[in-house]
Amino acid sequence: MSSSAEDIIISANDEVSKPVDEKKPTLLIPATETSAGEDRIKQYLPKYDRFWMRTPHFLKLNALMVVVSLSSTNTGYDGSLLNSLQTFDEWVSYMGNPDGAVLGALNNGVVFGVVLSFFCASYISDKYGRRNTIAFGNIFMLIGVIIQSCSINYGQFLVSRMIIGFGNGIAIVPSPTLISELTYPTHRQIVTTFYNSCWYLGAIVAAWVSFGSRNVTHNWCWRIPSIVQGFFPLVQTLFIYFVPESPRFLVNKGRYDEAREILLKYHAGGDEQLGGALVDFEMAEIQSAIELEKIAARSKYSDFFKTPGNRKRFFLLTWIAIMMQLSGNGLVSYYLNKVLNSIGMTSTDEKLIVNGGLMIYNFGISMIIAFFVNFFKRRTMFLFSNVTMLIVYVIWTILSAINQERDFADKSLAQGVLAMIFFYYLAYNVGLNGLPYLYLTEILPFTLRTKGINSCLFIQQFVQIYNGFVNSIAMDAIEWKYYIVYCCILAVELVVVYFTFVETSGRTLEEVAEVFGEQPQELSKDFDTLKGTDEQIENKDTASSDSQDNVIVV
């Protein structure tokens, strides 16, 4: 007799009578509460009486995640490099004294390359695997670094920047994905945070390598930091194949045995008795995610404009993208040299020390905030960030104006501006470093989540183009007066956050949906389609004796 739905759908709290066959993975239907998945997985986690650093398979896995995190380090190195190069008179002279839009094009060269990579990075990652895609992107980066280091003119340097950006864009798409798909469940948030913070590690190395080469004669003072940029892509390429492939990628390719073997090795130390239940649960989650993505693939970007709730979501993700790049951070990120010039700090040594110290400071602050992000409401963090950035920018502007009026004679004013830069980044890191992506995953329904995050990233690139061109021209033309523009932008951002940003912390998906004016059942209707009718389920397994091999957990 064929089995009915009631025969094979069980509660997550029930016990499965025997291990699930890895060739017939279970189908896990996600619950509608944001914390439900975490609550369910806790019952399958093995008990360890030792810290993870004393557990060999955890230590090895997390060490391998450092290799993957080098993608973020590559990005940070590049982000800090051009800031440092602008302080070298040799580089400025060799490149024909670039300024205004010409200098902006160099800053945007990487952005142009990243935008181009968006059209193929996800496809390559899904078709050829996470590791191959990272290696492929790094090869492009290394080619770009060679061209950049050997550049004999502005045009060659610009082309090299675009190639580096293209390779970097390809490598950074699969990297956080691979981390989330490989990391042990209870380590995921910390390891992901570490990945984001590695941006500052790369920036620190770039800043201090540049400081170390400042007294090297001729053009080697800037060629050395350019050459060192190839170090991290090279190391990552050499070691990336020691990292296991994504189990999710393997399952999607029908390689279930390999996926299960990897999960058992790195999540349970190869101990079937200790971690077999956890591995079965994770295999079930992977299958569920793949099925849900089939639903998500049927969604369109136009769905953002079909309902009031989705239109508000699109407005929020657009505004988040703008805030992340247009809150004044672009000035320091791209043109710290010009900012320091505007307060009378012209010494190359001083500029490089400030740049290096700022990167170390940012790394420490971002790590501290990451550990405390769950203790505060999302709106509270956004509002605190905006209010503090606005206050700091107003003080920064006033001090810069007085400093110029006094012909930069009062060193205490310059020191005051420096202090404001450090205070500014404290505020920025609270609300606009890692929090936005967490917030986006909470406001976006599953069917629009990937498209929403991609839209946010895409919008950011266009705002960065503005930063690259306009900031340079404006700083040359009106100097400190340009800060007033950002004071106004930050004031508008504060109003928008206060009146439009919804609170998601501690709310279930149904409660978040209600905030957007939707009925809870609308949110979970896609999940319901996966459960299917009795007839659809019977088609999976016509023999009741085999029903235990096709368990659907809800």
From TrEMBL:
Key word Ion transport present: no
Top-level taxon of origin: Eukaryota
InterPro entries attached to this UniProt entry: MFS_dom, MFS_sugar_transport-like, MFS_Sugar_Transporters, MFS_trans_sf, Sugar/inositol_transpt, Sugar_transporter_CS
Single GO MF annotation: carbohydrate:proton symporter activity
Location of this chain's protein in the cell: Membrane
Pfam families reported for this sequence: Sugar_tr
Family the entry assigns: Belongs to the major facilitator superfamily. Sugar transporter (TC 2.A.1.1) family.
This protein's name: Major facilitator superfamily (MFS) profile domain-containing protein
Species of origin: Pachysolen tannophilus NRRL Y-2460
